[in-house]
Amino acid sequence: MQHGAASVADAHGRYGVDRWVGSGTTHTEDMVAEEVPVALVYNGFSHAVMMSTPQDLEDFAVGFSLSEGIVGDAREIYDIEVVEHAHGREVQMHLAGERFAGMRERRRAMTGRTGCGICGVESLDQMACRPIATIGVSGALEAGALLRAQSELQTMQHLFHLTGAVHAAAWCRFDGAVELVREDVGRHNALDKLIGAVAAQRKSFGDGFVLMTSRASYEIVQKAAAVGIAVVAAVSAPTGMAVRVAQAAGVTLIGFTRGERHSVYSHPERVH
């Protein structure tokens, strides 16, 4: 058992590969992104096990806790420690008593229900009743912000350039300057890591926007709205449910963000 956080070097490995070009083959080595089981443990109780790239796990734990409503403020989480085991990682956290009691009550309410594959929800009835955060009036994108953010993000996707296998989530100012980037094999994990990183730096979620290198799914919009992020841009398409949630939550959802082209699916008043 080892303690500590993984670095970028731990997030990928070298593997032998036979590379075919036409009828010829060359044996070489390739950089491959790693993913490991990560258990999120609160006050000694395991709450969830997620497959994640083993870097920035403290950010992941904080972001997940915020975006899933386990805590309302990162300061309600104490003593975060990453523990390495033979088959994965544990992120051990201590919650304030009131928050931990609320989490345990939520888990008891879900006992015995059939899972439907959505984080924190174990029945269709719960899905229908899940609250949607509502974003009020906030900042707007400046002209050229999306183009600038795309350009800067391309130079900051270090693990992607090594492996080609991970998504990135970028925290951008409204002028398009990229301030933080987090990467993971899972797009939701990348966003949770970014949310945790923004919270760790005490930045306001209302002072910028998120750029994702993936499609915009329901969970991406839900997580963004939960912490007060008003603008989500993605390089690929949104889903219909993502659009509906964005409309209801007051989130500006932008898809197909590629070069000077983009499509605004909800609340276009923030895009100039």
UniProtKB/TrEMBL annotation:
SUPFAM superfamilies cross-referenced by the UniProt entry: Cytidine deaminase-like (SSF53927)
Where on the tree of life does the source sit, at the highest rank? Bacteria
Q: Which Pfam families match?
A: FdhD-NarQ
Keyword list (alphabetical) reads: Cytoplasm, Molybdenum cofactor biosynthesis
PANTHER family with a match to the protein in the record: FORMATE DEHYDROGENASE, SULFUR CARRIER PROTEIN FDHD
Q: What does this protein do?
A: Required for formate dehydrogenase (FDH) activity. Acts as a sulfur carrier protein that transfers sulfur from IscS to the molybdenum cofactor prior to its insertion into FDH.
HAMAP family in the record, alphabetically? FdhD (MF_00187)
Name this protein carries in UniProt: Sulfur carrier protein FdhD
Q: Which organism is it from?
A: Aromatoleum diolicum
- Report which gene this protein is encoded by: fdhD
